């Protein structure tokens, strides 16, 4: 008996199962550390800014805390989104980042505004919101370089291991010509992209973000398998660029170096000296939360890049050491995922994320302690700063996505290996 009529196709029901399976592979250690750091940040921001109602900086003791919570919630939602999207979508975002980073920075230079200094063009105002594009470019450069290098290798235009067919130094003309051709066909375009983005951030001017972006790029290059000779060439080219930039620094930028060298005898060295005083008063275990004296107008805007000085004063050196350990654990897990990841793009992304969480605390704490000049870099998840906080959460989301993909592929490979072994032992019949 024949059935007449069309067979209706059953519609596939939407299910959250794939997302739940991906969520189960999240790096719980990193998430715990991130939320712990965020909690410490909220506590310190409240402790420092709760007095702002008395000095006229705000009408509410929770003003800065509320703004931080809003930025944090947006960042957490973005982190979850970036962690759970398909891996190929993340690669598409990397392509978009490659295309959009330079024009965004150029737009900032033309239409950007500063906070306080009229010659600073680091912020874009959208209604009541102020966004710092350089913070987004940190993550954008990580994705862009990972995509750029991976794409170049697929096109056989990026030679990682050695100088091939360049010639010898004795034949200088041939060496020079072939060397330029080699550089043009390989990593020079990637290097120029990094240098262009770094330069656009530097002339805003935002020295701290420029250092981090350039540092991230250098670490990604060094971990991508470039030959030692190529690295030395990179260093030489970088020096040719950096020396003129240093010579062209403005007076107020050079003042940072003079203040760092001898803050006690410089007219503008009070901020550094008050920061050192806060650290000295805190000692090992601090004077107690809320009991800082240096936050009462001695350290200027202590809830931003100088928050570590008040943190040490109130909670002690022991607490800041534990915070540094937390950063190192995050960095170590990023690098470990990079080493285990068999996909070059994902590996380079994790290296970039790890580099970011290595460089940013080092530069911040180095500036606050007087080890290096102050550069205005925030302490990740702790300093006040909406754009910075959101981007930090987004960056963690990108790392989580790569880790989920790595674990999924590893599980598939293990399953295939198990089936192969069972077939070899005839436990699973071929028929």
Average pLDDT, rounded to a whole number, is 80
Biggest sheet descriptor: 2 strands, antiparallel
Q: Distance between termini?
A: 33 Å
How many strand segments? 2
- For the record, the count of structural domains works out to 1
**From the helix content, strand content and strand pairing, which structural class follows?**
mainly alpha
Q: Write the H/E string, N to C.
A: HHHHHEEHHHHHHHHHH
Shape: globular
Range of strand content = under 5%
Low-confidence parts lasting 5 or more residues at pLDDT below 50? 157-173
Helix content percent band: 55-70%
**Lateral strand order in the biggest sheet:** 1-2
| Cα gyration radius (Å) | 25 Å
How would you characterize this protein structure?
It contains 15 helices and two strands. It has helices at residues 17-23, 28-49, 52-55, 63-84, 87-111, 133-154, 172-185, 188-202, 207-223, 228-247, 251-261, 270-282, 307-340, 344-369, 386-424, and strands spanning 124-126, 129-131. The protein is an all-alpha fold. A hairpin with a 2-residue loop joins strand 1 and strand 2 (129-131). 68% of the residues lie in helices and 1% in strands. The protein has one domain. Residues 157-173 have low confidence and may be disordered.
């Amino acid at each position: 008996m024949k059935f007449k009529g069309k067979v209706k196709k059953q519609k596939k029901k939407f299910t959250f199962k794939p997302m739940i399976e991906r969520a189960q592979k999240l790096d719980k250690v990193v998430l715990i550390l991130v939320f712990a750091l965020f909690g410490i940040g909220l506590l310190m921001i409240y402790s420092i800014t709760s007095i702002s109602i008395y000095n006229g900086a705000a009408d509410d003791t929770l003003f800065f805390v509320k703004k931080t919570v809003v930025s944090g919630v947006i960042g957490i939602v973005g982190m979850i989104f970036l962690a759970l999207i398909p891996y190929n979508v993340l690669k598409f975002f990397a392509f978009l980042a490659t295309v959009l980073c330079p024009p965004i920075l150029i737009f900032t230079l033309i239409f950007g505004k500063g906070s306080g200094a009229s010659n600073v063009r680091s912020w874009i105002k959208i209604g009541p919101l102020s966004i710092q594009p350089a913070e987004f470019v940190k993550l954008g450069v990580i994705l862009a370089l990972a995509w750029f290098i991976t794409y170049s290798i697929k096109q056989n235009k990026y030679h990682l291991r050695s100088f091939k067919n360049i010639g010898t130094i004795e034949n200088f003309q041939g060496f020079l010509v072939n060397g330029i051709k080699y550089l043009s066909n390989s990593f020079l375009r990637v290097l120029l992209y990094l240098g262009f983005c770094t330069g656009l951030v530097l002339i805003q001017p935002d020295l701290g973000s420029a250092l981090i972006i350039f540092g991230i790029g250098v670490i990604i290059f060094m971990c991508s398998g470039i030959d030692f000779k190529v690295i030395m060439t990179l260093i030489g080219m970088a020096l040719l660029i950096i020396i003129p930039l240093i010579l062209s620094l403005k007076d107020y930028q050079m003042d940072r170096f003079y203040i760092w060298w001898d803050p006690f005898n410089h007219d503008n060295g009070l901020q550094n000296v008050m920061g050192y005083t806060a650290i000295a008063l805190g000692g090992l275990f601090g004077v107690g939360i809320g009991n800082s004296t240096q936050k009462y107008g001695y350290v200027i805007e202590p809830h931003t890049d100088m928050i570590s000085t008040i943190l040490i004063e109130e909670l002690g050196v022991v607490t800041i050491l534990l915070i540094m350990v937390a950063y190192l654990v995050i960095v170590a897990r990023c690098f470990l995922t990079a080493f285990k990841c068999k996909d070059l793009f994902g590996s380079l992304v994790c290296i970039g994320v790890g580099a970011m969480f290595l460089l940013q605390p080092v530069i911040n704490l180095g500036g606050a302690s007087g080890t290096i000049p102050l550069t205005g870099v925030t302490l990740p998840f702790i300093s006040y700063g909406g754009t910075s906080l959101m981007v930090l959460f987004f960056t963690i989301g990108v790392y989580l996505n790569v880790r989920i993909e790595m674990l999924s592929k590893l599980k598939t490979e293990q399953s295939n290996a198990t089936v192969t072994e069972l077939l070899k032992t005839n436990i699973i019949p071929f028929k």
